[in-house]
Amino acid sequence: MRHFISLNQLTNDEVYTCLETAEAYRNRTKRCNQNHFVANLFFEPSTRTKMSFTVAEKRLGMNVLDFQSATSSMTKGETLYDTAKTFEAIGADLLVIRHQSDDWFKELKEKITIPIINAGAGKAEHPTQCMLDLLTIYQEYGTIENLKVVIVGDIKHSRVAKSNAEALKRLGAEVFFSAAPTFKDDSLEFPYLSMDEAVEICDVLMLLRIQHERHENQTETTNYLEEYGLTKQREKRMKKESIILHPAPVNRGVEIDSGLVECKRSRIFKQMENGVYVRMAIITQLLQGWGKSNEYALEKC
Ligand code: CP
Fold first, then answer.
1. C-alpha of residue 247 to centroid of ligand 1, in Å
2. Which fold, 7-126+275-300?
3. According to the annotation, is 247 in a ligand binding site?
4. I need a labelling partner for 39 at 20 to 30 A (CA). Which of 15, 81, 141, 217 fits?
5. CATH number of 127-271
6. pLDDT on residue 31
7. Contact 84/112 with Cβ under 8 angstroms?
8. Where are the CATH 3.40.50.1370 domain residues in the chain?
9. Residue 161 known to bind ligand
């Protein structure tokens, strides 16, 4: 496997190998002496994904090339393909790309010979976010199988929802959606629950950000929390052990009551921490051979 574009590329065993590799990196400070050059090409805003990739790359001892789209030659009309080809020509070993297009990788994946990691593709896929969500759930329950996971919010515009729903289903979870009518996506075949039903049955409540930047018209959010979000009253009806996830950034007071963001059952900042280990694992597996055991990947450190 040359690129990491989608969770669909991996077998279930390969997903679990990645989760175990990420776990092994959790308390590890040893650096890999790889002398690899990596460029993070972000064409949409990001705090968590870009910075956690940077931390992961530096912890692996990689050389991180400084790229800012606003000061790059893309402002002179250079295409994404020619930009990627340029990095390949000057000796980059790995590209991490986030772009607003749903399928930016289609043109690149056949023609770019260095590995590419998808750090977010429009409304379509966010596989590294999915992998860190899987790790967070796996740490909690030791399995994905038979868990009830409800993905709540702006399903229609969310790449996180799409990557997670498919991967969780494939790994044996029972997946449901909950959304305001305008945020439903009928092209995805998952049952919808009301938020009141969702909080009572879920093991994992995965909240999503309202993606205002992808809406054609301004979305009214007055009363959204009471009608569709996680209020303090609803949180009290959740099962004792069930957890709250959110990929962040969070619209506090909209999809979740601000006081719940750091509550006991919230794993929102744990997800961010896990993002570093998962990205270390994905980079290592991609550069050293996916499917090799995690011992092999770690031996190289
Ligand atoms: N969860 C996530 O992708 O966050 P950023 O947009 O800040 O990278």
1. 7
2. Rossmann fold (3.40.50)
3. no
4. 15
5. 3.40.50.1370
6. 54
7. yes
8. 7-126+275-300, 127-271
9. no
Banded pLDDT at 295 (limits 50, 70, 90): very low
Whole-complex ipTM:
0.98
- Structural tokens at position 148: 């009830």
- Looking at ligand 1, which atom is closest to the CA of residue 98? 8
Q: Which atom of ligand 1 is nearest to the CA of 126?
A: 3
Average predicted confidence (pLDDT) for the chain: 92
Which residues, listed in sequence order, are joined to residue 266 by a DSSP beta bridge?
244
Helices (H), the chain: 12-25, 48-59, 80-89, 105-111, 127-141, 159-170, 195-201, 224-228, 232-236, 268-288, 294-299
Strand order in the sheet with 116-121: 63-65, 37-42, 94-99, 116-121
Name the residue of 129, 273, 276, 279 whose CB sits within 8 Å of the most ligand 1 atoms, as the mutation to test its pocket: 129
Query: String of b and e for 170-182 (b: at least 16 CB within 10 Å)?
Result: bbebbbbbbbbee
pLDDT, tens only, 223-263: 999 999 999 999 999 999 999 999 999 999 999 999 999 99
The atom of ligand 1 lying closest to the CA of 51 is 8
Give 53-64 pLDDT, tens digit per residue.
999 999 999 999
Ligand 1, atom 3: nearest CA belongs to which residue?
49
pTM assigned to the model: 0.93
Residue 88 scores a pLDDT above 90: yes
Q: Assign 32 a pLDDT band (cuts: 50, 70, 90).
A: low
What's the 193 CA to ligand 1 centre distance in angstroms? 26
Confidence of residue 196 (pLDDT cuts 50, 70, 90): very high
Q: Is 191 annotated as a binding residue?
A: no
